Protein backbone atom coordinates (compact mmCIF):
# COMPACT_ATOMS: atom_id res chain seq x y z
CA UNK A 1 0.00 0.00 0.00
CA UNK A 2 1.51 3.40 -1.00
CA UNK A 3 2.43 5.88 1.72
CA UNK A 4 0.10 8.90 1.81
CA UNK A 5 1.68 12.12 0.57
CA UNK A 6 2.36 15.11 2.83
CA UNK A 7 1.97 13.29 6.12
CA UNK A 8 4.67 15.10 8.07
CA UNK A 9 5.02 18.78 8.92
CA UNK A 10 8.35 18.83 7.07
CA UNK A 11 6.70 17.49 3.90
CA UNK A 12 3.88 20.00 4.19
CA UNK A 13 6.37 22.82 4.76
CA UNK A 14 8.35 21.84 1.64
CA UNK A 15 5.15 21.62 -0.44
CA UNK A 16 4.01 25.06 0.70
CA UNK A 17 7.47 26.58 0.11
CA UNK A 18 7.51 25.10 -3.40
CA UNK A 19 4.01 26.42 -4.21
CA UNK A 20 4.84 29.90 -2.85
CA UNK A 21 8.13 30.03 -4.81
CA UNK A 22 6.38 28.85 -7.97
CA UNK A 23 3.73 31.58 -7.76
CA UNK A 24 5.96 34.38 -6.44
CA UNK A 25 5.58 37.57 -8.47
CA UNK A 26 2.44 36.31 -10.24
CA UNK A 27 -1.26 37.01 -9.61
CA UNK A 28 -1.44 33.51 -8.08
CA UNK A 29 0.91 34.39 -5.22
CA UNK A 30 -0.89 33.72 -1.90
CA UNK A 31 -2.37 36.75 -0.18
CA UNK A 32 -3.02 37.36 3.52
CA UNK A 33 -5.89 34.90 4.09
CA UNK A 34 -4.37 32.27 1.81
CA UNK A 35 -1.07 32.53 3.71
CA UNK A 36 -2.97 32.03 6.98
CA UNK A 37 -4.60 28.87 5.60
CA UNK A 38 -1.25 27.60 4.29
CA UNK A 39 0.27 28.07 7.74
CA UNK A 40 -2.55 25.97 9.23
CA UNK A 41 -1.95 23.34 6.54
CA UNK A 42 1.80 23.32 7.31
CA UNK A 43 1.06 22.81 11.00
CA UNK A 44 -1.24 19.88 10.23
CA UNK A 45 -4.35 21.69 11.50
CA UNK A 46 -6.03 21.61 8.07
CA UNK A 47 -5.76 19.17 5.19
CA UNK A 48 -5.87 20.21 1.51
CA UNK A 49 -9.59 19.51 1.20
CA UNK A 50 -10.33 21.75 4.19
CA UNK A 51 -8.14 24.54 2.78
CA UNK A 52 -9.95 24.27 -0.55
CA UNK A 53 -13.37 24.34 1.13
CA UNK A 54 -12.51 27.42 3.19
CA UNK A 55 -11.25 29.23 0.08
CA UNK A 56 -14.49 28.34 -1.75
CA UNK A 57 -16.51 29.89 1.10
CA UNK A 58 -14.37 33.02 1.28
CA UNK A 59 -15.22 36.53 0.17
CA UNK A 60 -12.96 38.57 -2.14
CA UNK A 61 -11.58 41.90 -0.93
CA UNK A 62 -9.63 44.71 -2.51
CA UNK A 63 -8.17 47.43 -0.29
CA UNK A 64 -6.71 50.42 -2.15
CA UNK A 65 -5.98 54.11 -1.81
CA UNK A 66 -5.86 56.82 -4.46
CA UNK A 67 -5.55 60.57 -4.92
CA UNK A 68 -8.44 62.71 -6.14
CA UNK A 69 -7.61 64.49 -9.40
CA UNK A 70 -9.59 67.43 -7.99
CA UNK A 71 -10.83 67.70 -4.39
CA UNK A 72 -14.56 66.87 -4.45
CA UNK A 73 -17.16 69.09 -2.85
CA UNK A 74 -19.43 67.75 -0.09
CA UNK A 75 -22.21 67.50 -2.68
CA UNK A 76 -19.98 65.50 -5.05
CA UNK A 77 -18.97 63.15 -2.23
CA UNK A 78 -22.64 62.58 -1.30
CA UNK A 79 -23.50 61.88 -4.95
CA UNK A 80 -20.58 59.43 -5.22
CA UNK A 81 -21.71 57.62 -2.09
CA UNK A 82 -25.36 57.39 -3.25
CA UNK A 83 -24.27 56.05 -6.63
CA UNK A 84 -21.96 53.51 -4.95
CA UNK A 85 -24.69 52.34 -2.55
CA UNK A 86 -27.18 51.72 -5.37
CA UNK A 87 -24.74 49.91 -7.62
CA UNK A 88 -23.17 47.87 -4.83
CA UNK A 89 -26.55 46.72 -3.52
CA UNK A 90 -27.34 45.31 -6.99
CA UNK A 91 -24.01 43.47 -7.14
CA UNK A 92 -23.86 42.40 -3.48
CA UNK A 93 -20.69 44.42 -2.89
CA UNK A 94 -20.09 45.84 0.55
CA UNK A 95 -17.24 47.94 1.78
CA UNK A 96 -15.91 51.16 3.18
CA UNK A 97 -15.02 54.46 1.53
CA UNK A 98 -12.99 57.04 3.43
CA UNK A 99 -12.03 60.49 2.21
CA UNK A 100 -9.27 62.59 3.66
CA UNK A 101 -7.63 65.72 2.25
CA UNK A 102 -7.64 64.64 -1.39
CA UNK A 103 -7.16 60.93 -0.74
CA UNK A 104 -9.62 58.06 -1.08
CA UNK A 105 -9.17 54.90 0.98
CA UNK A 106 -11.54 52.07 0.11
CA UNK A 107 -12.24 48.41 0.79
CA UNK A 108 -14.46 46.51 -1.66
CA UNK A 109 -15.75 43.04 -0.82
CA UNK A 110 -17.98 40.55 -2.58
CA UNK A 111 -17.80 37.95 -5.35
CA UNK A 112 -14.39 38.07 -6.99
CA UNK A 113 -15.60 38.87 -10.52
CA UNK A 114 -17.86 41.68 -9.24
CA UNK A 115 -15.15 43.25 -7.07
CA UNK A 116 -12.51 43.02 -9.79
CA UNK A 117 -14.86 44.56 -12.38
CA UNK A 118 -15.63 47.47 -10.06
CA UNK A 119 -11.96 48.00 -9.26
CA UNK A 120 -11.13 48.09 -12.98
CA UNK A 121 -13.72 50.88 -13.41
CA UNK A 122 -12.28 52.77 -10.43
CA UNK A 123 -8.74 52.61 -11.86
CA UNK A 124 -10.05 54.07 -15.14
CA UNK A 125 -12.20 56.72 -13.42
CA UNK A 126 -10.83 60.21 -14.17
CA UNK A 127 -11.62 61.27 -10.58
CA UNK A 128 -8.82 58.95 -9.37
CA UNK A 129 -5.07 59.07 -9.87
CA UNK A 130 -2.17 57.22 -8.26
CA UNK A 131 -4.36 54.20 -7.48
CA UNK A 132 -2.37 51.85 -5.20
CA UNK A 133 -3.53 48.34 -4.29
CA UNK A 134 -2.81 47.71 -0.60
CA UNK A 135 -4.27 44.21 -0.39
CA UNK A 136 -6.21 41.94 -2.72
CA UNK A 137 -7.46 38.41 -2.24
CA UNK A 138 -9.84 36.15 -0.35
CA UNK A 139 -10.90 36.76 3.24
CA UNK A 140 -12.86 34.50 5.60
CA UNK A 141 -15.74 36.98 5.93
CA UNK A 142 -17.00 40.42 5.06
CA UNK A 143 -15.67 43.21 7.25
CA UNK A 144 -18.51 45.54 6.32
CA UNK A 145 -21.44 43.17 5.82
CA UNK A 146 -24.00 45.74 7.00
CA UNK A 147 -22.85 48.48 4.63
CA UNK A 148 -23.41 48.67 0.88
CA UNK A 149 -20.76 51.33 1.24
CA UNK A 150 -19.85 52.73 4.63
CA UNK A 151 -18.49 56.26 4.40
CA UNK A 152 -16.45 58.56 6.55
CA UNK A 153 -14.30 61.66 6.36
CA UNK A 154 -11.17 61.30 8.45
CA UNK A 155 -8.19 63.43 9.40
CA UNK A 156 -5.17 63.09 7.11
CA UNK A 157 -2.63 62.28 9.86
CA UNK A 158 -4.72 59.32 11.05
CA UNK A 159 -5.09 57.97 7.51
CA UNK A 160 -1.35 58.27 6.96
CA UNK A 161 -0.56 56.41 10.21
CA UNK A 162 -2.97 53.60 9.36
CA UNK A 163 -1.69 53.18 5.79
CA UNK A 164 1.92 53.24 7.05
CA UNK A 165 1.08 50.52 9.60
CA UNK A 166 -0.77 48.36 7.08
CA UNK A 167 1.97 48.66 4.46
CA UNK A 168 4.86 48.08 6.90
CA UNK A 169 6.56 44.67 6.67
CA UNK A 170 6.41 44.55 10.48
CA UNK A 171 3.48 46.71 11.65
CA UNK A 172 4.13 48.81 14.75
CA UNK A 173 2.26 48.02 17.93
CA UNK A 174 0.40 50.38 20.23
CA UNK A 175 -1.01 52.60 17.47
CA UNK A 176 -3.85 54.76 18.80
CA UNK A 177 -6.69 55.44 16.37
CA UNK A 178 -9.71 57.58 17.18
CA UNK A 179 -11.76 56.85 14.06
CA UNK A 180 -13.80 53.63 14.26
CA UNK A 181 -13.57 53.01 10.49
CA UNK A 182 -9.79 53.16 10.61
CA UNK A 183 -9.81 50.88 13.64
CA UNK A 184 -11.60 48.21 11.58
CA UNK A 185 -8.97 48.55 8.83
CA UNK A 186 -6.14 48.20 11.33
CA UNK A 187 -7.66 45.15 12.99
CA UNK A 188 -8.20 43.47 9.62
CA UNK A 189 -5.02 44.39 7.76
CA UNK A 190 -2.46 45.04 10.53
CA UNK A 191 -3.55 42.79 13.42
CA UNK A 192 -2.11 43.85 16.74
CA UNK A 193 -1.13 47.36 15.59
CA UNK A 194 -4.01 49.26 17.23
CA UNK A 195 -4.48 49.42 20.97
CA UNK A 196 -7.85 51.06 21.40
CA UNK A 197 -10.76 52.91 19.86
CA UNK A 198 -11.10 56.31 21.54
CA UNK A 199 -14.45 57.32 20.06
Automatic annotation (TrEMBL):
Record GO terms (molecular function): blue light photoreceptor activity; FAD binding
Domain BLUF: 59-150
Domain of life per record: Bacteria
Name of this protein: BLUF domain-containing protein
Lineage: Bacteria, Pseudomonadati, Bacteroidota, Cytophagia, Cytophagales
Amino acid sequence: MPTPLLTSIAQRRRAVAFAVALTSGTPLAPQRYERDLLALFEAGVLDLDEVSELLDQSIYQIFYHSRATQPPSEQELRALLEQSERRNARHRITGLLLYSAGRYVQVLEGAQHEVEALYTRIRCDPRHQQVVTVSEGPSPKRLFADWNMGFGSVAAPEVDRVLDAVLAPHPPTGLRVENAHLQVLLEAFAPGAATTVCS
